[in-house]
């Protein structure tokens, strides 16, 4: 049987074995409700609080920053945007980049009509917003700016510290979606200065269904779900102790391994780019200075969907830079925003490598891409 090569780590990562082991007790003997008062339950509470302080420390959030556990990166983003917007007075514009994840775009768009206007900022060829672009659009009537740290389709990295500075100088709040950045680059929340930063565990070899929102000391967090007083009143409902334990373990592993991961991924990216260089009519949508785990390519005269089917038959699991709907595969909003030429758009594919991939895997993926394109063009 062909060895499966997983090249879709930007979609989700395989949970680390240690993470699974760390979670198991909380499904089993440590099932207690962390709000209960007996020692068994307090031990569960202690794991939640340790994960909270470990994550805060890992992202450089300082002693006074806040971490709220949520159900996903998407929920963290919604919580950040709702919390930021709920205090708006007189300032009625929200700026987001046009290459944001739909969690940001659709949440921001849902505010339209509440006397708020949403503007999508143009991005460069790779999906980043330049500080000059933000300077041109920001005015004292802007209430909130949300620009992602790493683009999930191209790997483009935004200069969040510079963007946040410009935002604060204009008197607005700043959120960054760092779901694709965690574990891929060091994050220093205090240095960036962001009011809110969103994270998700399943992109760092942790479990699905658990995310986190960082909030700066001065940034209010309002609940999306009402009920009990869990998470300091920011998110009602019994905590996902299993997920939080897994998130904590994934952070612990990153603490030891992030630097090696980054070096390894950068090497894989280099090899992949070298191997695909001879393929004709192939555009690279990922900047060389971008995140090391994502390589987006657009092939002229090819359709992404059959390419992916053929790649998966060869054991390569990749994805497309396009959103599917029932009858057609339309180029994604990111592919549109970065201006991929018409003849290349529909042939956009994303390869995202991870900790367990080898140089051999990456070469095989590149060879399979060359073969499939030759066959289908
Ligand atoms: N933001 C980015 C940049 C992402 O890549 C993703 C997931 O693909 C999300 C947000 C959503 O995270 P989650 O799947 O945890 O809701």
Q: What sort of overall outline do the alpha carbons produce when their principal axes are compared? A: globular
Query: End-to-end span in angstroms?
Result: 27 Å
Global mean pLDDT: 96
Structural class: alpha/beta
> What gyration radius follows from the Cα positions, in whole Å?
21 Å
Q: What percentage of residues falls in helices of 4 or more residues?
A: 25-40%
**Biggest β-sheet description:** 7 strands, mixed
Keywords:
single chain, about 375 residues, alpha/beta, 7-stranded mixed beta sheet, 4-stranded antiparallel beta sheet, 12 helices, binds pyridoxal-5'-phosphate
Describe this structure in words.
With 377 residues, the chain is an alpha/beta fold. It has helices at residues 17-27, 39-58, 73-85, 102-109, 131-137, 160-169, 189-192, 241-276, 304-313, 333-337, 342-345, 359-376, and strands at residues 5-6, 66-70, 93-97, 117-121, 142-146, 173-177, 196-200, 211-215, 282-284, 294-299, 316-317, 319-320, 322-324, 329-331, 348-352. The chain has a seven-stranded mixed beta sheet with strand order 2-8-7-6-5-3-4, with helices on both faces. Strand 13 and strand 14 form a beta hairpin. The longest helix has 36 residues, at 241-276. Bound molecules: pyridoxal-5'-phosphate.
